[in-house]
């Protein structure tokens, strides 16, 4: 079945452009549009999309609060949120990720990247491209821990291999890339990622990446 997509942006021309791109793909179906966060909530309830393509700065209700309500404990449906951003709004991107977004994408990303990001998010993975993550974190380098602070006690619940996996997740690597880096199977990686999320009380790998940077386990620019 086609992936059902809801477009949320306060600029009609952008929504039209996204619709044209997505409707050219056989496995994607645009089921609706919204011009602000409040409309998005109504459309999510009514249309039950699989993925919400979410702008951040909008009238009435911004994308951060809309994301929080769509993905929060009171959520009414399976929708996952993919945030669209321009890099003059980085602080909102971080807040959207904390609120439960499954990833973020530049508004000027090539069409094939947009299509692939929607497929990745719909499949339950996180869209945390290393190049975008690096640019975002470079902007935030002065606001993130230096790495010299003591790590949170919760990190001590992880095994050494789980810490390795968490660091690679924070760098934006996929399961396949982590498996190749650590010379293990993808199934093993998925198991480790699941343990990390459970032990740290995190929703998904996006939150795991944010946690790794905020805790000082990983530093911007570190390899």
TrEMBL record:
Cross-referenced InterPro entries: CheY-like_superfamily, NreC/VraR/RcsB-like_REC, Sig_transdc_resp-reg_C-effctor, Sig_transdc_resp-reg_receiver, Tscrpt_reg_LuxR_C, WalR-like
Positions of the HTH luxR-type domain: 151-216
Lineage: superkingdom: Bacteria
Modified positions (4-aspartylphosphate) in chain numbering: 55
Segments forming domain Response regulatory: 4-122
Keyword field contains Transferase: no
Position of the signal peptide: none
GO molecular function, one term: DNA binding
Keywords from the UniProt entry: DNA-binding, Phosphoprotein, Transcription, Transcription regulation
One Gene Ontology biological process: regulation of DNA-templated transcription
PANTHER family per UniProt: TRANSCRIPTIONAL REGULATORY PROTEIN NARL-RELATED (PTHR43214:SF24), TWO-COMPONENT RESPONSE REGULATOR (PTHR43214)
Protein name: Response regulator transcription factor
